[in-house]
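Entry:
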Amino acid sequence: MKRVLSFAIWLVLAGMAIAQTGENTDKTLSPYFFVKSDDPNLDQLPLTSTSTSVDIAGVIADVKVMQVYKNEGKHPLEAIYIFPASTRAAVYGMKMTIGERTIIAKIGKREEARRDYEKAISEGKSASLLEQQRPNVFQMNVGNLLPGDEIKVELSYTELLVPTDGVYEFVYPTVVGPRYSNQPEPASEKWVKNPYLKSGHAPSYTFDLTANLNAGVPIQEVLCSSHKVNVSYSGASCATVKLDATEKSGGNRDYVLRYRLAGGQIASGMLMYQDRDENFFLFMLQPPKRVTVEQIPPREYIFIVDISGSMHGFPLDISKELLRNLIGSLRPQDKFNVLLFAGSSSALSETESLPATAENLKRAIAVIDQQQGGGSTELIPALKQALSLPRAPGCSRTVVMATDGYVSVEKEAFELIRQRLGEANMFAFGIGSSVNRHLIEGLARAGMGEPFVITKPDEAKLEAEKFRRYIQSPVLTQIKLNYGDFKVSALEPPAVPDVLAERPVIVFGKWSGAVQGKITLTGRTGNDSYSTHINVSEVKPLAANAALRYLWARHRIAVLSDYNTLQNSSELVEEVTNLGLKYNLLTAHTSFVAIDSKARRDGGQLTTVSQPLPLPEGVSNYAVGALQSVVSGAGGAKLYRANRASSAPAEAQELSVALEKKKSEDDAMRPEAKITVGKIIASGGLSKEHVQRVARAHLNEILNCYQQTLPRPQGQLVIKMTITADGLVSQVSILADPSSGKTMSACLTPKLKQWRLGGIRSAGEATITFELKP
C-alpha cells in the first residue's frame, strides 16, 4: 500500500515538476513553433503540393511521390522539407523537372552527394538533394528556386505488402511527428529542430493520393480508415482508390488503406527475377490456422505508458482505452505492473509485480485515467527502470510499451532491449495518427514481439484482443526450411523467428543454377508438427518482378543498419554504402542528387527556409511545448523555442521582451488566456468528478477553438452531450453567443465526438451538460 501511495503522490508532483523543467531546465532539440508574418515582403515558403500515385500488383507496391515547389517571393530560395515514408520503403529513384527540362538524379555517397549539391548551389545551378535521416524520415533540399520558379521533384520507391489475419495494409505516412532529444545537437540531428505549425493548423501544402489495386484474384472489400476516399472497380480483381476532394488538407495523418481478398485468400507461393548478373527470389508460405491452447501458463505483464506532452489529449485518451482493455482482461493467476514516464518515471510497485486481483486492476486503471500528458519524453531511463523491475517467479514476462514514439533515440532503445530484455518479449503499441513506426517496429523486432499501431479510439479494443491472441497462442514455432536441390544464397532473414500473427513466412534470397527442387517448411503448431512446401520447378522468372532486387537489398540494409547499433563500424558502413550504390538505393550513407547543367543565378544572396510541418492530427502543442503565445516581428517569420528558453539565455530574453511588447499591442493572444469548467449535470451513472476530469484533459483543444473563433476567450458555453452505453459520444449540442455559435460549434463538435467517458450503468444512453467559462 505504501508503494501505491508513493506512486500516487508522484503523479501529483510529476505535473508540477514537468511544468517547471519545461520552463526552466530542460535542454532539448525539441522543434520550434513556426509563426507566419503578415509582412507582404516576406518570401513565401515554396512547397505547394504533394501528390502520390500507388500501383499495387499482387503483394508489391510501387509508389511515385511528386512534390511541387514554387517560389512566390522576390528572392532566390533554398527549401528544406522533412517528410516520412514507410519503414519498408526501398527508394530507388528521383528526378527533378524545371520547365521543360528533366534531370535524373544520381546515387552517390552521402558526403560526396552533399558536396556536389552545395557546389552546384554556389555556382547558381538549380539542384535537389534527397537524404535519409532515419529509415522512415527523409530530407529534401531544393536549391536556387528563382522568383516565379515551379520545380517538380519525383521520387520512386517500392515495398512489400504482407497480410495479417487475411488483411493487406498499405500505409503512406504524411508527416513527421516532432522528436524529443536531450542530447547536444550533432550536425546529423539538425533535422530534429524542424519548425511546426501550431496544433489545429492545416498543412500549408495540398495532399492527394491515388491507389491502383491489381490483386490478381477477386477483391472482397477495400477500406480506408484514415481519409475519405472514392473507390471504383474495373473488374473483380482491380480497384482504383482516389482521395476525396475534401481531403486536400489531409497531410497531417497517416493514409491507411486496407483490403481483403475474396474468401480470405492471401498470396502464397514464389516470385522469381532473373537479372544479368544476379537472380532473386521471394517466397511466401502460409502457416496453419491458430490453434487454441487450453492450458495457458501464468504470465507477468509490465505496461510502460508514455504520458509526455506529445501524448496530451487524443493520443493519451487512446492509451487509456487500450490499457483498460489490456489490464481489465488479465486472469487472477497473472501478475502485472505499470510504469508511467515523461521527464521522469515511476512504477506502480517497485518491489514486485501485483496479483491481477479486481482491486489491483481497478486501482491501476484509476491511476491511468488520471493522466493528462505533459513534459519531455525520457524513453531510455524509463526502459531501464522497467527492465530492472524484479521478476515474478514462475511466470513468463511480457513487456508492453504504449507511446507515439516521438524520440530520436531509436537505436539506443533497440540495443537496450536486446541486452536487458532477457527471456521476456516486447509488444509495442504506437498511439496516434502519425506515429514513429521505425521505433514501434524496431522495439518489437528487438524484443521478438509484434508491433501494433492504433490511430483511433475505436481500434483499441480490437488491437487489445489481437494482442491477447498473439501472446496466448503462437501460430507456428521451431520453424526450419529445407531448400533441397534449389541453390540459394544471401537469405534474408537467415533464420525465421516464431510466427505470432497469422501472416505468411517470408524469405528473400538469391539463386543460381537450374530452376528445380522443392522448398519445404516445417515447424510446430500447438502440440502437433506441421509441414508445407513449394515446387520451385513450377515457377517462372518474370521481368515484372524486377522490384525483387530492390526489396532484397532493402531488407539486407534493414538488418545491417536500421535496427543495428554498430553504426560506427567502418565495415558495416562500407557494406551498407556499397549496397546503396550497387542497387541504386537511398540509405543512411547514400543520397540522391539532381543538378541542372545550366547556371540560373548569378551572385546575390540565397535565402534558406525550412518548410513548417503540421502537427499530426490529435497531437497538441504540448508536443513542442505549451507556449501560450508566439509572435513575428516586422523583419519576417521568426522561430522560437517552444518551452526551452533556458537553453539559450539571449533567446529567452528576446522572447520575453517580444511577448511583453506583443501583449500590450494586441490582447488577442495574451498568455494568460484560459477557460475553466463550470456547472456539471450528469446522468446514467456518470459522476460529475469523472466528467470534470475528462473535460479538463481537453481544455487546451477547446481553448484553440475559442481562439480560432473569437479575438479572445469570451462568453459562456453550454455543452450537452449524449453518451452511449460504451462511453462514446453520439450527439453534441452547443449553446454559445449568436455571433460565434455556428463557427464555434463547427470547430468543437468533431473534437467532442472523440471523447471517451467509459461505460455507463444504464441500459440505454446517458447525458451530460456542463459549462465552460473564460
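The chain is about 25% helix and 35% strand.
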